[in-house]
Amino acid sequence: MLSIAHSPDADDIFMFYALAFGWVNFPKPFTHHALDIESLNQEALKGTHAISAISFGLYPLIKDHYALLQPATSFGQGYGPKLVRLQNKPLKKNFKVALSGQYTTNALLFRLYYPQARVVYKNFLEIEGAVLKGEVDAGVLIHESILDFHPDLIVEKEIWEVWCELSNSELPLPLGGMALRRSIPLTQAIRMQKALNKAIVLALKHQDLLADMLLERSLVRVHKAHLDTYLSMYANENSCALSGEQRAGIDALFALGFKHGLYPELVACQDYLIPDSYENLRFS
């Protein structure tokens, strides 16, 4: 049985559950697993799941074993993860910071921008508390935490601002995507990508119904107003297929990583997408 993994944050849950609820027929039977983003990245390095959500910052390290899917992506556009600290505690150059995982996109950008910071990694749900307790001087909040954090905390820096400075652009900030194991036959991979795309289109068309179903089953961690806001940011019409600007953003991220020695070679995302045209050529 096919193994599909996604994160437990609201946008992944929303985009995936049209499949889980049976609104769309998937080409193969599947089990699904909800894991925090760094666990997903670590499992992708091992090749554990056939299809998995990943951080775009990880992808060049798994490109030989996974292809990139176009649907179910999350980008920041004027927003994204936030570096927060206590209001009365200005940061020194070597401040101690909690990040959500070594291979996350926000961690990649953070380390390039703050090379003197002392980094520790924590589950994303523990970061806010670690800052409030003084275990760390600051933390990068991700997922729904960016919408509603403790009033004693203030935003030191938006990772969106970091991205714009490092990339010298205002291209979409590539945060999370989906990867599919290369051992899956190409025709099946194309059909799986189409099914995932259809699931997202249906989810967006029936957003209120699906949101209510998720809330009633306690599948998301936020209330209705925050869910609507969060979905408008990270699960929207731009999540169905990669635009030219989004591809340019991914390539800019990969170029940054290569320039700073984080990847062994320069990668262009276009070379690692599922070639949809193959199915049309084969059956024409």
CATH superfamily of the largest domain: Periplasmic binding protein-like II
Measured distance between first and last alpha carbons: 30 Å
Q: Sketch the major β-sheet.
A: 5 strands, mixed
Ranges where pLDDT stays below 50 over 5 or more residues in a row are: none
According to DSSP, the number of beta strands is 10
Estimate the strand proportion: 15-25%
Which second-level CATH architecture of the largest domain applies?
3-Layer(aba) Sandwich
- Fraction in helix: 25-40%
What's the pLDDT, averaged over the residues? 92
Pathway: Quinol/quinone metabolism; menaquinone biosynthesis
Keywords: Ligase, Lyase, Menaquinone biosynthesis
Protein name: 1,4-dihydroxy-6-naphtoate synthase
GO molecular function: ligase activity
Overall description:
By secondary structure, this protein is an alpha/beta fold. It folds into 2 domains: 2-75 and 172-282, Periplasmic binding protein-like II (D-Maltodextrin-Binding Protein, domain 2, 3-Layer(aba) Sandwich), CATH 3.40.190; 82-167, D-Maltodextrin-Binding Protein, domain 2. Helix content is 38%, strand content 20%. It is built from 10 helices and 10 strands. It has helices at residues 10-20, 37-46, 105-113, 127-132, 159-167, 186-205, 207-216, 224-234, 244-259, 277-282, and strands at residues 2-6, 30-34, 51-55, 66-76, 82-86, 96-99, 118-121, 138-141, 153-158, 173-181. Strands 2-1-3-10-4 form a 5-stranded mixed beta sheet. Strands 7-6-8-5-9 form a 5-stranded mixed beta sheet. Strand 1 (2-6), helix 1 (10-20) and strand 2 form a beta-alpha-beta unit. Helix 1 crosses helix 6 (186-205) and helix 3 (105-113) crosses helix 5 (159-167). InterPro entries: Menaquinone_biosynth (IPR003773), MqnD (IPR030869). It comes from Helicobacter gastrocanis.
